[in-house]
Design brief:
Number of helices: 10
Keywords: Methyltransferase, S-adenosyl-L-methionine, Transferase
Radius of gyration: 32 Å
GO molecular function: histone deacetylase binding; methyltransferase activity
Order of helices and strands: HHHHHHHEEHHEEH
CATH topology of the largest domain: Serine Threonine Protein Phosphatase 5, Tetratricopeptide repeat
Bound molecules: zinc ion
Strand order of the largest sheet: 2-1-4-3
Distance between the termini: 75 Å
Largest sheet: 4 strands, mixed
CATH class of the largest domain: Mainly Alpha
Structural class: alpha+beta
């Protein structure tokens, strides 16, 4: 056996070679079994060579876990590898590139980044890629560059997937007229990312509400009682040419297991930005606070 580190039995070294061979042959479960056998039969005592040897075995077992999609198990092994050290080396400390310690540490950072990426923990993935870069003193490594690109791509795709997922939304329009009218109920969908939190992101929510109203405004304007479906101005009762929308938004009802709801207090106005329009906006600003204050979960715009 070449370069046999003192303190390690030849039979154990052979087991490691066997496991590596199985891994190369893509017999990952078998490789995993042999790596585990070595680790299970080794104590925690031993000289630095023994410790270093076991770090490598554990890091290789993590690679087998990764190949099998066991990312959580791999994380556990890799964190163990990175927190264990032989004398003179602590986590993150420098070591001659190419030394067994440096090689195992480098590979472990990269494997850990890969695991976190697969687990959707992109910040953790980037953190370990940065740790890798520090460890090699900023030297460019193709494996690191490839992984960075993968993290970026997967993160983008994850964001798109979240955006695409939607849940049903009740959109209730209460049109203000001198003679009360029944609310108009519309059924829409809302991105999951806006409703699965107790505190909906404000900008995204406002953009969503703006799109919602733009989508239905022209149609709503033609659902009134006058000829051509016009409404009466809420204030002067002339023919309305536009609608002022004020929202009470209950997007986060979803968190309590209820259907998210947006209530639109719609005031038909004779002239946009005319007196009745301005009065509508002023009044709603005051009214909305009264209507909504009792509830904890609310948002208006
Ligand atoms: Zn008017």
């Amino acid at each position: 056996m070449q370069n046999q580190p003192p303190g390690i039995l030849e039979s154990v070294l052979k087991l490691k070679e066997e496991a590596n061979r199985l891994y190369q042959k893509k017999s990952y479960t078998a490789a995993l079994g042999v790596y585990s056998k070595i680790l299970d039969n080794s104590g925690t005592e031993g000289n630095d060579d023994v410790k270093e040897f076991l770090r490598t075995v554990r890091s290789n077992r993590a690679a087998a876990h990764i190949a099998l999609g066991h990312y959580a198990e791999a994380v556990e092994d890799l964190q163990h590898v990175l927190s264990s050290s032989s004398s003179g080396h602590n986590e993150g400390s420098k070591a001659p590139i190419g030394s067994p310690f440096a090689t195992t540490t480098r590979k472990s950072y990269l494997r850990l980044a890969r695991c976190f990426c697969e687990l959707g923990k992109f910040d953790d993935a980037t953190k370990h890629l940065d740790a890798h870069r520090d460890f090699v003193d900023g030297m460019r490594a193709p494996e690191e560059d490839e992984l960075r690109e993968k993290v970026y791509r997967d993160q983008q795709n994850a964001a798109i997937a979240t955006e695409d997922k939607t849940v049903p939304l009740k959109y209730v329009v209460k049109i203000m007229q001198s003679t009360p009218t029944a609310p108009i109920r519309l059924y829409e969908t809302v991105p999951l990312s806006l409703v699965d939190t107790g505190y909906p992101p404000e900008t995204a929510s406002n953009q969503f509400l703006a799109k919602l109203v733009m989508k239905h405004d022209a149609w709503l304007l033609k659902q009134g009682p006058l000829s051509g479906g016009a409404w009466k101005c809420w204030s002067c009762r002339k023919r309305a040419t536009g609608i002022v929308h004020s929202f009470a938004s209950f997007l986060n009802a979803y968190v309590d297991g209820k259907e998210p709801e947006v209530i639109d207090f719609a005031q038909p106005v004779c002239v946009y930005w005319g007196l009745c329009d301005r009065e509508a906006r002023r009044m709603m600003q005051e009214e909305m606070v009264l209507v909504i204050n009792p509830g904890r979960r609310w948002q208006i715009n």
